[in-house]
TrEMBL record:
UniProt keyword Hydrolase present: yes
Stored Pfam families: Peptidase_C1_2
GO MF terms, alphabetically ordered: cysteine-type aminopeptidase activity; cysteine-type endopeptidase activity
Protein known as: Cysteine proteinase 1, mitochondrial
Gene3D superfamilies with a match to the protein in the record: Cysteine proteinases
Keywords: Hydrolase, Protease, Thiol protease
Lineage: Eukaryota, Fungi, Dikarya, Basidiomycota, Pucciniomycotina
Amino acid sequence: MGSQASKVSKSTPQTTHYSSTDEKTQAKADAASTAALLSRLHLPQQHQFNRDPLGSSSFDSQPPSSEISLDLFAKWQNSFERNDRAQFASTVLSKQHLSLALLSRQALAADKQIFSHTLTVQPTPVTNQKSSGRCWLFATCNVLRMGIVKKFNLGDFELSQSYLFFYDTLEKANYYLESMIDLADEPIDARIVSHLSSSPEGDGGQWDMVVGLIEKYGVVPKAVYDESYHSSNSGGLKTFLTSKLRDFALELRQVHDDALNQSINILGKDRDSAKADAVTHARAAKEKMMAKVYQCLAIAFGTPPSANSTFTWEYLDADKKAHSLVSTPLEFYHNHCSGFKASEYISLINDPRHDFNQSYTVNRLGNVWGGRPVRYVNTTSETLKDLVIKMIKADKPVWFGCDVGKMSSSAYGIMDTKLFVRVLMLIPASLDYESAFGVTPQLSKSERLQTGDSAMTHAMVITAVHLDSQGNPVRFKVENSWSDTAGDHGYFMMTNDWFNEFVYQIVIPKSVAPGELKKAYEESKPLVLPAWDSRQDYIPFIAGEDLGDLQRLLQLKRHTCNTRQMTSKIHAGHKLGRTTPILIFEPNSKQLRK
């Protein structure tokens, strides 16, 4: 889930904010008022805006030009000024964000937090990743804590997301520097080198990456290793580390080249022997660099327990009885997570660009060097939903990845393809651009991936499902990590249609997978997708862009997140021509969502 993000415009759109206890009621009323005005624009199909801005599909006497001429611009302008409906749309829509102006009252009424099948335990509190891109770690900890809460009869309880984040940051630094040694013979401007250097220290990650962390370092309660400023607000530290790692990378290339030349030209060694010497010298230099990286992290985050060091966890159970437990992080994971074994879980994806029942991996996507490689098995969306239902009925939560910025509202906790829309021509839903602008996107799920219009940006946990009388899924309950101020006390509702369009990945035990998918995972040779693949490409938030800058500019307190390896910052739409909308201003939530 980057290159440098573009500057945010100083001319920030004016946005209405609500602070009373009737925030959502007032927001609904405003949305309904706007919808009523917009309904006056909606005429029968033959009277809607012509898709040709000039109202004609025929060419003038002059052939079409490659440039925007002043005469052509004048025609567009005159046509617009004569169009009363377009003028009215401008009057309505130019004063607020589209996600408010086009909010569907019908969808708000239809989308309910009612579910027929729910997990027996809903741990508290709702977690808060704050201004960081650690959603994949939060989702993992939210899955693991359910068994711990049951075992110890706990009330409020969290695992330490910061503990895993410390070691993820350390491992990513090593992964990047080791990759630079491995690619030392490549030109510095080779695409793969440039891609890895674009974000060597992003916040995000993937399921197999967290498996590597947990199996190596274990887990600890949050009370043992709590949040620091820099774990909750990662931008500043990651900016610094990103620059320093690039500095180290250039130094490693020089050490490698000097050792290689010396072995060949002075010592007379053959190429293979000289290459081995060069790698040895570079790794010796890398160890010294990594010691400096560790020091930076220990200063910024605080020193975490090591994997085999003991800690004492003191806690109160749900009956307010005091207890104490001595353990190591690895022992806590193996002995107190109710038998949860991360290594037995696999990732299933729905990527209609590629063949189903086939496994895939991504070139140089990882954090723990030599650890478990990132691997997926591709299947249908219907299969993913069937397996989610099976998991919920078995009282097991489901870690999943999606494009959270599409057709969603963090204020209302709704992910619904009809949230802002009137479905036209049976195409995937979008904001009701047709009524507003006379045009609407017509991209399929596959086409959104091909063009970079959609990608996996966020990981959360499915904790409930509502089935109709025929057993078909209607909606899913989602545990988010944006605090209890987002959605319905921190929980979101996801419709069946939204799942089809914007859910890309679920994680399940391999034993639960259908036979053909299990066989594909175990026996098929994974096809290697490029590191910059549009679905697996790191989220387009570049390490080094400080979200706080935008917060200060907008005078808001906001945060975002993702599942792929990038920090949760400001997306300017540069990778693979991405042009997805970024800022979603919502009436009830002082949070910035992708």
